[in-house]
């Protein structure tokens, strides 16, 4: 069974072999799992024949007796992209649970709530009424009009339906925006910590991600002076995410105005404003759409969706709004990628926007629960010596500085060198799955998702605290 599980995890998730035992059931689970995705040093085998593959610079050939070699090399564009560590770790944790390891999964950014009943019923009715055919590529007029109404009422943004494209999730909207406006050699500014996909989206467009670090002491908010000093003639995009994944930080309007003043000086510079966590925000913090600031409508692409606030992750529904020239380009890409989003999901999306401003009572109830969980976790982790926290004002993540534990060595595990080894340690000794900060561009931290029940979080905190005891007593190496 151990060999079988090891093969399943390493092949399904794409993780490189390093020593990791998983708690007390390590004899039934893999002992060779890592979060690293560097596979270049592993031998290749053809999946069909089982024969070894020889690497020949950029060309990879499969040799079979009596047959010519088959070139199975991949596009340099694909090879430049790193797999998502959040997806890899979530898949790993799920596989361990399925193998009998009682792992608490706090890696994925997925609300634990069911989709509100009115939304689900709209989807069911769509199926029953035969609303199961293709829609317009850009989305149904009904949904795009509802989005326009939402943006006007909640964000003070005026759009027409032809300035909206509905996609299969906000992630698709984001990548289409990047591909639509970036040319090879362009630069995309990404404040760190960042959502794992932003730099990879830039690379897929043959653009260069330019990472701007932020500081925990500044609540992980971008320094306008650093931004201004980084912009060059090649800078094409600035990606902003507020509330932020992974930090939960919310950009105050005054800071956004300072950023807008800098953006206005550079005619080529556009802004992608990722507002997917807009409704998951904790008073007194408030949300400001970047496009609503003076002079920013013409150069902002606003991305939003239904996954987070409405607990609709599996419905795969998002959208982008912006000037028609750019939105038409996004629609052109979508027409060749996927065509329109699910007709059933779009009916559900109309129902979601019909719940009232900000999602109405259904979303308010979820946000209240998220806030309770946040308050519990912040209080709990602040009790641990050496841990640093910036209290999140939105989303459902904690991005916690655990770097004071680096350099310590624990018998039976080894040395805690960085966020990846700390996360492996917590998975091994505490059986809690969290994400290393290195995936988000800040190796001093780890990300914990509190999109889980308070009972689950209480159990996770106890496990983490218990696992940290040997680190607290271990001497720095």
From TrEMBL:
Family indicated by similarity: Belongs to the class-I pyridoxal-phosphate-dependent aminotransferase family.
Domain Aminotransferase class I/classII large residues, every copy: 102-464
Any one Gene Ontology molecular-function term assigned to this protein's record: glutamate-prephenate aminotransferase activity
Pathway per the UniProt entry: Amino-acid biosynthesis; L-phenylalanine biosynthesis; L-arogenate from prephenate (L-Asp route): step 1/1; Amino-acid biosynthesis; L-phenylalanine biosynthesis; L-arogenate from prephenate (L-Glu route): step 1/1
Entry-linked InterPro entries: Aminotransferase_I/II_large (IPR004839), AspAT/PAT-like (IPR050596), NHTrfase_class1_PyrdxlP-BS (IPR004838), PyrdxlP-dep_Trfase (IPR015424), PyrdxlP-dep_Trfase_major (IPR015421), PyrdxlP-dep_Trfase_small (IPR015422)
TM region(s), chain numbering: none
Source species, domain of life: Eukaryota
UniProt keyword list: Aminotransferase, Pyridoxal phosphate, Transferase
CDD domains in alphabetical order: AAT_like (cd00609)
PROSITE patterns the record matches: AA_TRANSFER_CLASS_1
Any one of the GO BP annotations: aromatic amino acid family biosynthetic process, prephenate pathway
Cofactor(s), names only, from the UniProt record: pyridoxal 5'-phosphate
Lineage of the species this protein comes from: Eukaryota, Viridiplantae, Streptophyta, Embryophyta, Tracheophyta
Protein name per its UniProtKB record: Bifunctional aspartate aminotransferase and glutamate/aspartate-prephenate aminotransferase
């Amino acid at each position: 069974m151990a060999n079988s599980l090891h093969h399943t995890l390493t092949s399904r998730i794409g993780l490189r072999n390093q020593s990791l035992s998983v708690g007390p059931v390590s004899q039934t689970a893999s002992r060779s799992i890592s979060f690293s995705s560097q596979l270049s040093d592993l031998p290749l085998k053809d999946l069909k024949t089982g024969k070894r593959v020889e690497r020949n610079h950029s060309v990879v050939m499969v040799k079979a007796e009596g047959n010519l070699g088959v070139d199975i090399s991949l596009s340099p564009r694909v090879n430049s992209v790193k797999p998502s560590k959040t997806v890899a770790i979530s898949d790993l944790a799920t596989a361990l649970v399925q193998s009998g390891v009682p792992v608490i999964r706090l890696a994925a950014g997925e609300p634990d709530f069911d989709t509100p009943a009115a939304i689900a019923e709209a989807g069911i009715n769509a199926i029953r009424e035969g609303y199961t055919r293709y829609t317009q590529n850009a989305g149904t007029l009904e949904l795009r009009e509802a989005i326009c109404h939402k943006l006007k009422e909640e964000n003070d943004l005026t759009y027409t339906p032809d300035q909206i494209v509905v996609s299969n999730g906000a992630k698709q909207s984001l990548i289409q925006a990047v591909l639509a406006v970036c040319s090879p050699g362009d630069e995309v500014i990404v404040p760190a910590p960042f959502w794992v996909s932003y730099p990879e989206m830039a690379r897929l467009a043959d653009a260069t991600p330019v990472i701007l670090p932020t500081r925990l002491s500044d609540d992980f908010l971008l320094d306008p002076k650093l931004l201004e000093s980084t912009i060059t003639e090649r800078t094409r995009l600035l990606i902003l995410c507020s509330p932020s994944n992974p930090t939960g930080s919310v950009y105050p309007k005054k800071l956004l105005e300072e950023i807008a003043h800098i953006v206005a000086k550079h005619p080529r510079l556009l802004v992608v404003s990722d507002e997917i966590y807009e409704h998951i925000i904790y008073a007194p913090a408030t949300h400001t759409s970047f496009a609503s600031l003076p002079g920013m409508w013409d150069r902002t692409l606003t991305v939003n969706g239904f996954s987070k606030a409405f607990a609709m992750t599996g419905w795969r529904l998002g959208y982008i709004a912006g000037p028609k020239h750019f939105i038409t380009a996004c629609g052109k890409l979508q027409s060749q990628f996927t065509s329109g989003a699910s007709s059933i999901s779009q009916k559900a999306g109309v129902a979601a926007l019909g719940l009232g401003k900000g999602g109405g009572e259904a979303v308010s109830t979820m946000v209240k629960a998220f806030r309770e969980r946040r308050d519990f976790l912040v209080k709990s982790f602040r009790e641990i010596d050496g841990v640093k926290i910036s209290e999140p004002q939105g989303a459902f993540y904690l991005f916690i500085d655990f770097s004071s534990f680096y350099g310590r060595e624990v018998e039976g595990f080894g040395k805690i060198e960085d966020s990846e080894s700390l996360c492996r340690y917590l998975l091994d000794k505490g059986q809690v799955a969290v994400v290393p900060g290195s995936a988000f561009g800040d190796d001093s931290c780890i990300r914990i998702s509190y999109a889980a029940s308070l009972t689950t979080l209480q159990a996770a905190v106890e496990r983490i605290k218990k696992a940290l005891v040997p680190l607290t007593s271990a001497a720095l190496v």
